[in-house]
Amino acid sequence: MLQLINPDCYGEFIDDLAEMHRLRYRIFKERLGWDVQVSGDMEVDEFDACRPAYLLQKDDDSRIQGCVRLLPTTGPTMLRDTFPALLDGQAAPACQTIWESSRFGVDLCTREAKTAGSIARATYELFAGMIEFGLMRQLTDIVTVTDARMERILCRARWPLRRLGSPRSIGKTIAVAGYLEVSRERLQCVRDAGHLDGATIKSAEGRSERSTHNETMERAVA
Known about the structure:
alpha+beta, Aminopeptidase, 8-stranded mixed beta sheet, globular
């Protein structure tokens, strides 16, 4: 299942958020060796102060296995403020119908079996959850900075990246920026590829948005 955490309910999920930052430390600092900001055993950067939404993927024992961060492009974004070279001279997207995803990661220590395309079910759930999130907010696209390996995974999961510019070497990876389509049709493609049944976001959002967004979600992602 996926836990959606919006800014107005951070206080309800303090332990989950702390574990998410530890997960990000293990993935991005220890495993991938990225030059990221850390605080003790947690990976935290300036974009976490921008009140993003988070999706956390949990196993049957409620252990957090994966995460992704989501920010509106009308405010600070990693693409505009950290990786503008990936735009090839274009303006960064800044639109209410486009959000940015970042810090997507899945704990590869999990024993969970791979599904279609040799992709973990946790990964498929996060992909589907991102599209569900977008449909709830009437988004058209999610923009992201990723690497060549993840671009191939997205293609196998039937959620292909539409490149914004040419890939570039950044640190230890080949990075590329692009758009991911948000639509009911694309959601169904990802669900079919990952053998998912129904919505992956099971829990409520923040109290102030809960009833409205739950009704919208039922209509959008069914």
